[in-house]
Design goal:
It is built from 25 helices and four strands. By secondary structure, the chain is mainly alpha-helical. The strands form two sheets. A two-stranded antiparallel sheet has the order 1-2. It has a two-stranded antiparallel sheet with strand order 3-4. The protein is flat.
Length: 505
C-alpha cells in the first residue's frame, strides 16, 4: 500500500493522474446533486496549475481534495522528506528574509531622521543645521503629526542603533562642502564668522581649516584689527591642530603670521605647543618652535613647564649643549621637580661629568626631593665611568644608610669599577656585603667575579666561584660557560675545561 500510495501521489503532482469525475466535489469530498450525465473527466492537478496557483495554494487544494485519497499520503511524504533534507537551506532563507526586512525598516528610519529639520545654506557653501533647542511654530496639524513620527524614529534609533552622542555629532557635520575658493571674501574677512568656522573645523577637518585661514589672509584679513580674544582662540586652534597632524612647517608659518602681522605670540600658546610636541615625541620640532618664538624680545616665558619640556626634548634629541641653559632657566622659574633633576642627571651621565651628577644629587637632598634607586644608580654609574671608584663607594654607603634604594644593579656597577681597577678582593668584599644585605646575586655578579679571577690567573678561585654558583642554583648561560672554559684553558686545566664544555652541551 505504501508504494502504491507513493506512485499515485507522484502521478497526481505531475499531472499524470487517472481522470476522475468532475462531479466529485473538490472542496467537500461529497458528490454533487447534479445528474450523472453532467459528469465529465478532468485531470485533478496539473503541473501548470501547481505553478500558477503557487505552492501554498496547490498544497491547500491537495489537502482538501478527497479525490487524492491514498495519493495524498504519498505526495505529502515526498514533500516532507524533501523539506527535511533541505532544512538548513530553508532556515537560511527564512533568516535572510527577516534580516532583509529589518534592514529595510531601519534604513527607512534613518532616512526619516536625515530629513529631520531643514538645513540652511549660508554664502560660504557650508550647510548649517537648524538651531537646536528652539521650537519652531507649527503651521498645521500635519506638522504636529510629522514631529510625532520623527520623535518615534529618534527614540527607536537611540535605543537600538546609534547613541545620543553620535547623533549630535552627525547633526553638526555638514553634509556637503563647497570649495574654499567659493566662499564669499566678505565672510572670510569677518573675524566673528572666521573664528567660529575655523575653530569648529579644527576638530575634524584640520586641512580645510588651514586652507580657510590662508584664504582669509589672501582676501585681506587684518589680524591687528581682530579682537585679541578672537585672535588667541583662532591661533590656538590652528597651531595645536597642525601639531597634532605633524605639520610643523605650517606651525612655523602660523607663528610668523602672528608675529609679523598680528599681536605676537603669547606665552599660553607657547606652553600648549611645547607640551603637545613633547607628548607627540616631536623633540626637534619643539626646539625649532622655541628657537623661532624666542626671537621675539618682548616674549617672557614664566611657566616653568616650558623649560621642563625643552630640557627633556634637548636630551631626547641629542642636543646636550642646550641642557644647561634650559635647566638654569627652569631653576629661575621655580624649583625643579624630581623628573627635571633626573633628566639633568642623565645629561651628566651622558657627558661623564661626575661632579655635576654629585652636585645635582646634593641639591635634590637639600630641596627635599624624593630620590629613587634609578637616580642613585645613574650617579653611581657616572662616577664609575669617570674612574671615581672611591666616590662611588661612598655613595653606596649613603644608599645603604637610606635603605631600600641599593639593589643588585648598584653592587654590580661598583663591582665592575673595582674589576676594571684590578681590585679583585674588593669585588669579593662587595659580594659578601651583598649577601649581608639579603640581596641575591645575579648572573652578572658571578660573571664579574669569574672575570676577576681569570684576569688575575686565579683558576682555583674561579673554580670556587663556579661551585658556589652551582650550589646556589644560579642558571648558567653561554657567557659564564665560555668565561670559565677560558680560565681553565689558560691555567692548563684542559680536563676541567672539557668537563665544563660537556656541561654546557
Amino acid at each position: 500500500p505504501f508504494w502504491r500510495n507513493l506512485k499515485f501521489g507522484i502521478e497526481a503532482v505531475t499531472g499524470a493522474g487517472t481522470p476522475v469525475p468532475i462531479c466529485v466535489s473538490i472542496t467537500s469530498g461529497s458528490s454533487l446533486t447534479r445528474p450523472p450525465h453532467d459528469c465529465g473527466t478532468i485531470p485533478l492537478l496539473s503541473r501548470q496549475s501547481l505553478l500558477l496557483t503557487g505552492v501554498a495554494g496547490g498544497l491547500a487544494e491537495a489537502m482538501s481534495a478527497t479525490v487524492f485519497g491514498f495519493a495524498f499520503d504519498g505526495a505529502v511524504g515526498v514533500l516532507l522528506q524533501a523539506a527535511r533534507a533541505m532544512r538548513v537551506e530553508l532556515t537560511f532563507i527564512v533568516v535572510f528574509g527577516f534580516l532583509w526586512m529589518a534592514g529595510r525598516h531601519v534604513e527607512a528610519g534613518f532616512a526619516i531622521k536625515g530629513r529631520r529639520g531643514t538645513n540652511k545654506k549660508d554664502p560660504s557653501g557650508i550647510n548649517t543645521p537648524a538651531t537646536k533647542g528652539r521650537r519652531q511654530p507649527s503651521t498645521s496639524s500635519g506638522d504636529a503629526s510629522e514631529r510625532g513620527g520623527r520623535q518615534q524614529t529618534m527614540a527607536m534609533t537611540r535605543s537600538g542603533f546609534r547613541d545620543r552622542t553620535a547623533m549630535r555629532t552627525a547633526d553638526r557635520v555638514p553634509t556637503t562642502l563647497m570649495p574654499v575658493a567659493s566662499i564669499d571674501p566678505s565672510l572670510l574677512c569677518d573675524p566673528t564668522w572666521l573664528v567660529n568656522e575655523v575653530v569648529h573645523m579644527c576638530r575634524t577637518q584640520v586641512q580645510r581649516a588651514l586652507d580657510t585661514y590662508h584664504a582669509a589672509m589672501k582676501a585681506g584679513l587684518d589680524l591687528r584689527d581682530m579682537p585679541q580674544a578672537d585672535c588667541r582662540n583662532l591661533f590656538m586652534a590652528l597651531v595645536t591642530s597642525a601639531i597634532r597632524i605633524g605639520q610643523i612647517d605650517e606651525v612655523l608659518r602660523l607663528l610668523r603670521d602672528l608675529r609679523e602681522q598680528g599681536p605676537g605670540v603669547t606665552g599660553a600658546l607657547l606652553v600648549s605647543a611645547t607640551k603637545l610636541c613633547t607628548a607627540k615625541q616631536l623633540f626637534r620640532e619643539c626646539l625649532a618652535i622655541y628657537d623661532y618664538v624666542s626671537m621675539d624680545p618682548d616674549l617672557d616665558i614664566e611657566d616653568k613647564s616650558v623649560w621642563s619640556c625643552l630640557l627633556f626634548c634637548a636630551i631626547e634629541a641629542g642636543c646636550h649643549p642646550r641642557c644647561r641653559f634650559f635647566f638654569e632657566r627652569l631653576k629661575a622659574s621655580g624649583i625643579p621637580s624630581p623628573k627635571d633633576y633626573g633628566n639633568m642627571i642623565r645629561f651628566a651621565s651622558i657627558s661623564t661629568e661626575c661632579e655635576l651628577a654629585l652636585t645635582l644629587l646634593q641639591e635634590m637632598r637639600k630641596e627635599g626631593a624624593s630620590i629613587d634607586s634609578v637616580v642613585y644608580n645613574t650617579v653611581l654609574a657616572t662616577c664609575v665611568t669617570a674612574n671615581r671608584v672611591e666616590e662611588a663607594s661612598t655613595l653606596l654607603s649613603e644608599m645603604e644608610a637610606v635603605g631600600g634604594v641599593a639593589d643588585v644593579i648598584t653592587y654590580n656597577t661598583l663591582a665592575k669599577g673595582y674589576a676594571k681597577a684590578g681590585c679583585m678582593d674588593r669585588c669579593f668584599e662587595l659580594y659578601e656585603q651583598m649577601l649581608a644585605q639579603d640581596i641575591k646575586p645575579s648572573q652578572v655578579t658571578y660573571g664579574i667575579l669569574l672575570d676577576c679571577c681569570i684576569n688575575e690567573n686565579k683558576v682555583d678561585k674561579a673554580a670556587e666561584v663556579f661551585a658556589r654558583m652551582t650550589k646556589e642554583g644560579c642558571v648558567m648561560n653561554t657567557v659564564l660557560y665560555t668565561t670559565l672554559i677560558k680560565g681553565f684553558a689558560r691555567g692548563g686545566k684542559v680536563d676541567d675545561a672539557m668537563h665544563v664544555y660537556e656541561q654546557m652541551r
